[in-house]
Amino acid sequence: MSDNCPVRVRIAPSPTGDPHVGTAYIALFNMVFARRHEGRFILRIEDTDQARSTLQSEEAIYRSLKWLGLTWDEGPDVGGEYGPYRQSERKETYLEYARRLIESGHAYHCFCDDERVNRVRAEQRDLTGVGRYDGHCRAIALDEARARVAAGEQSVVRLKMPQDGETVLDCPLRGPIAYPNSQQNDQVLLKTDGFPTYHLANVVDDHLMEITHVIRAEEWIPSTPKHLVLYRSFGWRPPTFIHMPILRNRDRSKISKRRNPTSLDYYRRAGILPEAMVNFLANLGYSFGDDIEKFTLAEFIEGFAIERVSLGGPVFDLDKLDWLNGLYLRDLSHEDLLDRVMTEVLSRERLAKIVPLIRERIVRLEEFVPKTEYFFSGALDYDPALLVHKKLTREQVQGALAGAVERLDSVLDWRAETLEETLREFAAEVGIKAGPLFMGVRVAVTGRTASPGLFETMEVLGRPICLFRVRDALRKLTESNGKDTAPSDRPG
Ligand code: GLU
Questions:
Q1: Does 269 share its domain with 405?
Q2: Closest to 193 (Cα-Cα) out of 88, 83, 44
Q3: Is this prediction's pTM over 0.85?
């Protein structure tokens, strides 16, 4: 990589779960940096965690970034000269580079089983405060290691961390940070199944894809010294690392879906305009100057300077998002606003799913709107006492809903049958009757004690809004605790 080489940046999301606002945040800054410097913006899918990665989640990443108007120049869906851009299709490449590191003496086969590794790490943690592997297999001669591998013995490949000296991470925003090498683990690079870990795949790909600047979230800082050692071990020049501040809740904790929705799908469903979301994300940790808070993506690109990123933990403040969204809504002409309502809220596609659910429950067309209101709204207003079935205590319902939302969160295949199966299994496991549990969930997702079939309703409502409403129900229960209602008010 020469000093004058064109800027090439990337995002490298792992396709697990819902498309995250943090992915959009990092994508935005990378894209803007690339456009500002007339470089290339690459989307790489890091799906080496085979158990958790899904194609559905990968597609959700493309869909939601496109919704925001973000575009990339290379990626699994658009191709490019540096492909494949999906790590699961590059397994041979990682094997080859792991082999090179072993041959050059920078990595080694480790035959220790999980039991030993866990024990040693616990011992080391007690002894030194850092739970590291003790380097036991470093001493095995390469020939012997090869023979054992050839004989079918299971092994991982570990990085041989230098044991003295330090590795310095020099970030343009944070200045140099020195890490003593002796504190670092002999990181696993290749797992027993031959798949690389994040560290190996990430470094090999960033190098082969000629990435010049790695702009990623602060949470990756602790991994970066290992990455720098990897670059050094390969004899490669590392890219410039820029770690963006982590997005936080109001109480300064890292944003999490337990506090605020983090799925981009939720915000779209909640009627946030994509241009407002982009503007909101741009304002997080970035000062456009002169107290200007509303600006377009084009203006952002034109004025962008990475040095203007501030590190003081930007707060993902939903009031601010609403305020900006309101400004953008009011900028729309009547005609444009009407178009948005027709595509995002009252689309024929959505109505077509609701009609079969509601047809048996109305005798006049005029009932359609009042009886289906919860299909179109966001947070619901109802008496939290309705959540508590008379056969259960408030604590039981709280526990049940908290457990149910965890289970529902793992359902990516959001269909009525899967949802029913999941909740029935959950009820059986924790030993509560399905009926009272379903009633709690029904009230949480519809605000009512009577609705069309619960699971069909949940399917049509969709994952983001259902998860949001069940979490909201839990919050309502917690907040209303103490203001108890007589059992006769409860549904039976
Ligand atoms: N796969 C990592 C993630 O999910 C990529 C981190 C990085 O950008 O290096 O965010």
A1: no
A2: 88
A3: yes
